[in-house]
Design brief:
Blueprint (H helix, E strand, L loop, with lengths): L1 H24 L3 E6 L4 E3 L3 E9 L3 E4 L2 E2 L6 E7 L4 E10 L5 E10 L12 E8 L4 E7 L3 E6 L2 E3 L6 E7 L7 E8 L3 E8 L17 H16 L4 E3 L3 H10 L13 E5 L2 E7 L7 H15 L5 E7 L5 E6 L8 E5 L2 E3 L1 H6 L2 H7 L4
Parallel strand pairs: 2-8, 6-15, 18-19
Antiparallel strand pairs: 1-3, 3-6, 4-5, 4-7, 7-8, 9-10, 10-13, 11-12, 11-14, 14-15, 16-17, 17-18, 19-20, 20-21, 21-22
Helix pairs in contact: 3-4
């Protein structure tokens, strides 16, 4: 009887080991209850609901999602005027994965206000260390991931990420987060900074250090007055790329900087061609910012050349495109004077090309 009892114990142990082994080698599965398929939404929030099997974790666009008895129930905010892609990834302890995705289009008649759950106010590439530094604030977030990396949010509601070019090969950051109200959000943010020099087909100028010094001086001047630099979003990238023509084909995204102070937006651009149409290009830039930053009330398009001189077009009320005025080195001047004295022509003759 004693021997039989021992044998039963051994058999139970062997069965337990085999069961665990079989379970560990099973492929994870995801059963998505909602949404069942790709579709176009009329509402700003979508419900993501389902369950996983033979898996320990679930991520959506790289962000870890809480599970309740292998089930998940997550509301997500949709980005307007674009396709919203959700990639669900289940993974088990053996390292096996299962992925499925859903695409939800959201094109509302009116652009909803940006709730400003977080801001990225510093993006810098250090050529010496080959490293990106990204800093931001997250006053309304419970958690945030950038490129599937979880970032701690400190007591001051700020976060920071250092990323090498080996870790990051794209021109954008994938940001996913959970708000304090437990809503999931996902955004792509452009990484157009000094690292993009290899993309330029033509030299920006023979001495690029001169351009960098002038640009840095202008940016520093704004930042001392509590202006914060904001990233160029994916939608803005597409619109600006379409705007670039033969006269301003050297106006690469890496040379455009956006700054914000409350409801005021400034776009800082270098003069890159002697024939560039400052008035028309500024007007189109204003509309891009108007359509992509709903909270903006005043938009200023600031141009600078290699002297450096500065010409600025200020749109006081962006709802009325005729309501604008010109500044030269912070001095207001009429459009008639600009034309009669050929000031814009003289300004563009000192472009960086």
């Amino acid at each position: 009887m004693f021997i039989i009892s021992i044998m039963k114990s051994y058999l139970l142990i062997i069965f337990f080991i085999i069961s665990n082994f079989i379970f560990g080698t099973n492929n994870p599965t995801i059963e998505l209850f909602l949404p069942k398929k790709n579709y176009r939404s009329t509402k700003p929030i979508v419900l993501l609901k389902g369950k996983i099997k033979h898996a320990d974790t679930l991520t959506i666009n790289g962000h870890n999602i809480n599970l309740y008895k292998s089930r998940f129930y997550q509301k997500a905010i949709l980005n307007p005027h674009q396709e919203n892609k959700f990639i669900f990834t289940a993974k088990n302890s053996a390292g096996k994965k299962e992925k499925i995705e859903r695409i939800i289009e959201y094109f509302p008649e009116k652009t909803p206000r940006n709730p400003n759950f977080f801001t990225i106010n510093y993006i810098y590439f250090d050529q010496k260390t080959n490293q990106w530094t990204i800093k931001g604030k997250a006053p309304k977030l419970k958690s945030i991931y950038i490129n599937s990396i979880e970032l701690p949010i400190n007591s001051k509601k700020t976060f920071e990420l250092r990323l090498t070019n080996q870790q990051h090969t794209n021109n954008s950051l994938d940001v996913s987060a959970i708000t304090n109200d437990l809503l999931f959000l996902n955004q792509k943010i452009g990484l157009y900074q000094y690292a993009d020099k290899t993309i330029d087909k033509k030299p920006f100028e023979k001495d690029t250090s001169k351009f960098e010094i002038i640009q840095k001086a202008i940016l520093d001047s704004f930042k001392t007055k509590n202006w914060g630099q904001i990233p160029i979003t994916t939608i803005q990238q597409k619109m600006i790329t379409e705007l670039i023509t033969a006269e301003n084909d050297n106006l690469h995204l890496s040379k455009i900087k956006l700054l914000k102070n409350k409801n005021f937006i400034v776009a800082i651009l270098p003069s890159t061609h002697k024939n560039i149409d400052l008035k028309n290009t500024s007007f189109q830039f204003m509309h891009i910012l108007q359509n992509t930053i709903p909270t903006a009330q005043t938009v200023s398009i600031l141009w600078y050349n290699s002297v450096p001189n500065i010409i600025e077009i200020v749109y006081d009320n962006i709802l009325s495109s005729d309501n604008y005025y010109w500044l030269i080195n912070d001095i207001r001047i009429s459009e008639d004077q600009l034309i009669n004295k050929k000031i814009i022509k003289q300004f563009n003759e000192k472009s960086f090309i």
